[in-house]
Amino acid sequence: MKFYPKAIHVILTLLALLLFWLAGQRLVKSPQAIILPPPVREFLGFKNLLPTPYPYPVNHYLFSLPPLSAKSVVVLDADSMAILYEKNPDERLRPASTTKIMTALVALDYYSLDQVLTVGDFKVEGSVVGLKPGEKITVKNLLYGLLVSSGNDAAEVLGQNYPGGMASFVASMNEKARKLNLTGTHFTNSIGLDEAEHYSTAKDLARLSVAALKNSLFAQIVSTPEIAMTDISGEMVHKLKNTNELIGQVDGVKGIKTGWTEEAGECLVTLEERANQRIIIVLLGSHDRFGETKKIIDWVFANFTWESLAPAN
Q1: What is the arrangement of strands in the sheet containing 277-286, beginning at the earlier edge strand?
Q2: 100 is catalytic
Q3: Are residues 26 and 82 in the same domain?
Q4: How far is CA 12 from its chain centroid?
Q5: 72, 127, 149, 150: which one is catalytic?
């Protein structure tokens, strides 16, 4: 191999520039973006390694948001992660069945979708799919039962079949909450039952929802208006209807989870997709979760526009 003096000189010059630039960056650390100096970018064929930022929501304050009965509210732009509105966002409250967002994520982390689980002999109250003891059903169908019709029995089956049983399943829910930096959240069951140490916040549920929606199957399931699922024999048929009344009623609503208990009140986490924007709306302790979510959706798109921000070189 022949080495040409001019080529060596160019390479050494570029390396020197890079080292000089790196020395000046010792006080600036960014794990998500790397900007090389122009001569190095041109030599390597890169225009820019900075990611293009999402359009940012701008409030024009044209209309006021009507008063809301919900104890806690967060309205989040799912792409830029900008908060459009908040009311007591960090207050720890009972999340009811919005808990099942985390239940689904832990199940998706561990089980394969075609894995067959056996329904145990147990009793649960509240919303159920109607699973029978001894019934064999796939994890995928259990997820539909969990998220579409908010089946407490589906949550129980997913937890009982986990290695170490329900206690280990709930421990994994809390570990995942820790990894997602949900500092105001703690679970004691997979269903959303009211218990002293079972709580979350509107802000945490909004962040959790953004993480969950990255899973395409999760996003598909929570946007399903109704579906019939069966056990592996095809003989046991369970007809499911989504508990979120806004799906199919309000344009752009794509799920994601309802919840209600006497202590929690009406809870609702909603994904609204409109004009290429994705908005997460969380209400906890509401007296009219569907009506108030409609008001928030109208308020958002009457007041906000999204502006693109171009990064500097």
Answers
A1: 83-87, 72-77, 277-286, 265-274, 253-261
A2: yes
A3: no
A4: 48
A5: 150
185 and 223 fall within a common domain: yes
- Separation between Cα atoms, residue 74 and residue 98, nearest integer Å: 14
Residues 68 and 203 in one domain: yes
Could you read off the pLDDT of 257-299 as tens digits, one per residue? Answer: 999 999 999 999 999 999 899 999 999 999 999 999 999 999 9
Out of 97, 127, 172, 223, which one is annotated catalytic? 97
> Computed over its alpha carbons, how large is the radius of gyration of the chain?
24
Looking at the fold, whether 69 and 178 belong to one and the same domain comes out as yes
On whether the pTM is more than 0.85, the answer is no
- Give yes or no: residues 40 and 60 share one domain: no
User: Does 264 map to a domain?
Assistant: yes
Asked, for residue 49, whether it belongs to a domain, the answer is no
- Would you call 97 a catalytic residue per the annotation? yes
Among the listed residues 71, 72, 100, 203, the single catalytic one is 100
209 noted as active-site residue: no
Residue 137: inside a domain:
yes
